[in-house]
Fold:
Amino acid sequence: MSEGPSLETVGDVIAPPSEPGGGGGLTGVLHVPLLGNPNTGKTTLFNALCGLRHKTSNFPGTTQEARIGVVRIGSESSEAEVHLVDLPGIYSLELDLLEARVCRDVLAGRLSPKGEPIGDPEAVCIVADATNLARNLVFVGEVLRRRLPTVVALNMIDLARGQGREINLRTLEEQLGCRVVAVSARKGEGLEALSAAIRTATVPTHTPPGDQTELEHWADRLAVRSMQPAGGNAPGIGTTLSLTDRLDPLLVSPWTGIPIFAAVMVAVFYAIFSIAQFPMEWIDAFFGTAADFVERVLPEGILRDLIARGVVVGIGATAVFVPQICLLFFLISLLEDTGYLARAALLMHRVLRPFGLPGHAFVPLLSSHACALPGIMSTRVIPDRRERLATILVAPFMTCSARLPVYVLVTSLLFKGQPLYAGLAFVGCYMLGAIAGLFSAFIARQTILKGPARPMVLELPTYKVPSLRTALATTIDRGWVFLKNAGTNILAICIVLWWLGSYPHVLPPESAKLLRVQATDLRALADTTTDTTKVEAQRASAQKLEDEANRLTAADAKARSFIGRMGKTVQPVFAPLGYDWQLTIGVLTSFAAREVFVSTMAIVTSAGGDDADVHDEGIVQSIATAPRDDGKTPIFTTATCWSVLVFFVLAMQCLPTLAVTAKEAGGAKWALLQLVWMSGVAYAAAFIVFQSLRLAGIS
Amino acid sequence: MSIPWTDWQFWVATVVALLALWLVLRNLLPPGWLPFTKRRGKETKASLTVGGKPVDRK
Structure:
């Protein structure tokens, strides 16, 4: 345990602290961890103090995320630059959890976020919930025992006042032996006083009891004492039912809570898919224009193709999902801030428990419906390692945005002009993914991840109006992490796919050459014709022939490229599922990223260019009617469509997700297991579907 | 059917594609399996001391 801050050992220039409340205090760079129980408004306070001036990194050797914000306090002559480190919310420093270990090590000066120097913190800021003082004081007591310069930020003081709780700060300060500042991070109250207090923080004058039971009694006594206004009687706490007391019976009860929860989730998804589609279309159009621009500006050659079809398409493939992901994080952050998400996790605990997953898994699984990457990254909130691994393994079963273009394509092939059936098939895909995920979790928890279920201890915070500022800061932060981590992978995969699809170079097929000759003849004929109407018709026909020749050339080049050969080699494996070599190429490229399936199929079936748009009726029609090598049987028969749909619902076709799984789960073996298990399940299910339909005479 | 071996642009594109492949595989394979990826240092045991003196463990 550290014996106070070793000012000499820290590299920065530190002046000795002056008396609390004085105008001076520490100068230079101060490293101040911000810690507290979960749901005490710690992140809101961090955002209120630092705004957007923060960076996100990791604690070395852990997957624990660290946010570091910078706050400047004081005048130019005696300015202190406070590096505030937002530590994970924990209920006790003594817990056997990664989060608690990180907090312990930071307080002991053994650990710092990447890029920050290791050493004793100059001060500690504990965030305590003023509406739940007794329990928060237990944690405060644990930190005070570390004998570091400490300030207690009594957050949500406005809510406490609203509940009729008057806290005597003077009494609390005397009993704790350190500065206590009442703040409302949500409203921005008391922030200046808190900043000043951090700068003048001193080692507490009292040491709370070390025994846990005694510490709890100490906290209870202190809470009761400080709730008494000086010279007055205790306030009438609980004389009227608060909003939380009134809402909780409705929202936490399974009978009413689950339907309300379902309605909230439908609203969240509706908002995500309806609002995000506009920016997604703009981004898609922007990158399409950018690719065209590159092709126009740069001289013809391999590098132009690499930039236009590899780099620009790669960046576009990442950026197009950013609106959905940001919107998802924004809405989740708002829900979390209201206090509802904790109730939702409690409700889902009852649903997920039989499958061996905790209620904490609900948010990661929900996030995975936008993209499995942020979903897997958010499993860090799950305290139990086995439960966390099980959640990571099954998160990609949830239908992500990248699957949607495939669903749109296949359902429109299956149910042309029948939107109701297409919609039902869509819902069925979502349900199949979720059910497969739950049963896979059950199997994992009964076999490789067998272990006792950890009881879920969750504090239900009071309901409050969410902070837009916090939601925005979280959204920007999460969105950037997604772009940085997933974007790099997707871009790299697109470049590799481009290379495999571009080489070796092949001569145009005879059919394309013939069409070009015909087009040239038609143009020559048009030049000699005097009738204007005929000239236009001849030129239009020539252009059509030229386009057809280009499409045939592209399809032939793709078929004979490295990736095309791989398709033909691997095709026998997929033959029992009803796939020909062209469909096999589509499926193979989708193992890198699902979203490339439609554009690959468009190219392979000669339906259009790389930027093919699935909503374009012509392209869907072209893919629907594209024949196999026999020239008669369509690639997409009814049985094949169902087989493809089931395969894409269940298969692990996303290299970036595998990379993140390997990173978060702590080894490539977990990513390999995920790939083998999901793809095995997908193969078996697609085989059963295709063969059953074939035997039933539906083909 | 050919590979444009003599085209310098082909080599630039190939180097970029190899770098991209390395980036993808780096996250998938254990450290040390690929060139230029750090292998984690061997863990060593250290005795617990306070103020430079060994701690008596009961």
